[in-house]
Amino acid sequence: MTTTLEHIRDAAERLRGQVIRTPLVRAGRLSERLGCELFLKLENLQHTGSFKDRGSYIRLSNLSKDEAQRGVIAMSAGNHAQGVAYHAQRLGIPATIVMPEFAPFSKVERTRAFGARIVLTGDTLDASAQAAYQIAEDENLTFVHPFDDSDVIAGQGTVGLEILEDSPDIEAIVVPIGGGGLMSAIATVAKDANPAIQLIGVESELFPSMSDSIKGRNTMKGGHSLADGIAVKVPGKLTRPIIEKLVDDIVVVAESDIENAIQRLAEEQKLVAEGAGAAGIAAILANPERFAGRKVAVVICGGNIDLKLLSGILTRGLIRDGRMVRLRIGIIDQPGVLARIASLIGKTGGNIIEVYHQRLFYDVPAKQADVDVVLETRNSEHVKEVVASLQADGFPARILSDHSAQGTL
């Protein structure tokens, strides 16, 4: 069944009061950095942290009484799982969620907290999907597909309606693509409202399944992507023809660009986004000239990122920007030397976070030692100033952090 504009408008009416009508906010600092008028559609503010709340509700609310009594099953590593479990609990529908064995503990526990039965099985998403289909058949459950379902697509399309209600003169909409449910639905809405609106899809370089399918190529690499929410090997059968017809372009972004986008959203806009949620920003950061001077909306489709992963990304970002550095300093092993080093670093404005003083395990003469110092600094130029100060006072110092590979030193 093809999802129509009328289907999406009906979904919007039915979603009133059931999900959050998320804001479309101007990203001031990123707009200045990127040279465009950038607006962010904050689907990370939904109750379960992603746009999946929308399509899940529409699909579950359309179940027959018999289907609702028997229950539903879904397969997901995170966001779709939570959306289905949340609304199933609200509607009194038994829910089984099949999740891969590698699913993050936090996502498993959040899904379980919504009252769903969790089945952890499969070392890949495909294996988990096969298990879910088998359980659905064995237990006569209704399978709720994450994207290849007309009701689900209609629910996701309400994101596009809201964008155009809030900003009718938007010139381009950038949307992450996994299976294509969100992109195909937004495209249906946007091209009807204004055929001149440019629609740009974004895929991870590891999983360019939709663009590969449309262009008849095979560049799929696979692997562990930061954007696991769009790490889909096979695009939707319902979504592909819509995207091929209505979407102007699909760009592929590197993992490093996604990491950078997560950091920029957190630091400059104070927003937490998961990898898939930041993919649209990654596309603009990688090619700002394409969007310069235009009014652009980006869907931040989810914010369910593991806190340990987020912490690592933010720390790596500080290192890339030259605001955290690790120096190795050669010293004579005698009293007072560490105090001199600390004084020199302090006079230049550096802040010592950690010190590693090794006499035994480094390849240095017996009366010498190497000291590794982790510092907070203002930027890469400040790092050079600290190193120059140490060297001028007779302390050989070198940078261990690999800034040069990032182009910051």
Would you give an account of this structure?
The longest helix is centred in the middle third of the chain and has 17 residues, at 150-166. With 409 residues, the protein is α/β, with parallel strands linked by helices. It has a six-stranded mixed sheet with strand order 1-2-10-7-8-9, with helices on both faces. The protein has a four-stranded parallel sheet with strand order 5-4-3-6, with helices on both faces. It folds into three domains: 5-50 and 172-316, Rossmann fold; 52-143, Rossmann fold, CATH 3.40.50.1100; 323-406, Alpha-Beta Plaits. Strand 3, helix 5 and strand 4 form a beta-alpha-beta unit. The chain contains 16 helices and 14 strands. Helix content is 43%, strand content 19%. InterPro entries: ACT-like_dom_sf (IPR045865), ACT_dom (IPR002912), ACT_ThrD-II-like (IPR044561), Ser/Thr_Dehydratase (IPR050147), Thr_deHydtase_catblc (IPR005789), TrpB-like_PALP (IPR001926), TrpB-like_PALP_sf (IPR036052). GO terms for molecular function: L-serine ammonia-lyase activity; pyridoxal phosphate binding; threonine deaminase activity.
Short summary:
With about 400 residues, the protein is α/β, with parallel strands linked by helices. It contains 16 helices and 14 strands.
